[in-house]
Write a structure and sequence with these properties.
Layout lengths: L1 H15 L3 H17 L3 H27 L20 H8 L2 H4 L4 H27 L1
Helix pairs in contact: 1-2, 2-3
Length: 132
């Protein structure tokens, strides 16, 4: 009974203090801490670490959305059929071996192809605006 009252108080306090990540994880962490007889300072440190990591992740996501960047994507989900860059080149660049070997030639080739790609698309858009 007393645990439920304390739990409700903690829920209310973390909500009021805007600590959503602590609110989601404190109960499981408290059970583990009690079972393993952790030092209270260690539990507080872990809770603050969880909140800090959660806030950092939330901040990155908010900034990504504000910048109109696509969601986190990987090369596995990349459709190479719509790219003018050969798949072999993309896979070669993805392992970053060229950076370690200090070979920037392929990177410059990639930049040139990307620039040419966007230049073509801008020319198409400009021609549509002029004719439209």
């Amino acid at each position: 009974m007393a645990d439920n009252i304390i739990q409700d108080e903690i829920e209310a306090m973390t909500k009021r203090l805007r600590l959503p990540h602590i609110r989601r994880s404190y109960y499981d962490l408290a059970l583990s801490a009690r079972a393993q007889r952790w030092d209270p300072m260690e539990m507080i440190r872990l809770l603050l670490e969880i909140e800090l990591k959660g806030r950092n992740a939330s901040t990155l996501e908010i900034r990504r959305i504000a910048a109109n960047l696509p969601s986190n994507r990987t090369l596995e989900g990349f459709d190479s059929s719509i790219s003018s860059i050969p798949n072999r080149t993309i896979m070669g660049l993805s392992n970053l071996e060229w950076v370690r070997l200090k070979r920037t030639y392929w990177f410059l080739v990639l930049l040139e192809r990307v620039r040419a790609f966007w230049r073509r698309h801008l020319q198409v858009l400009e021609s549509k605006q002029v004719s439209g």
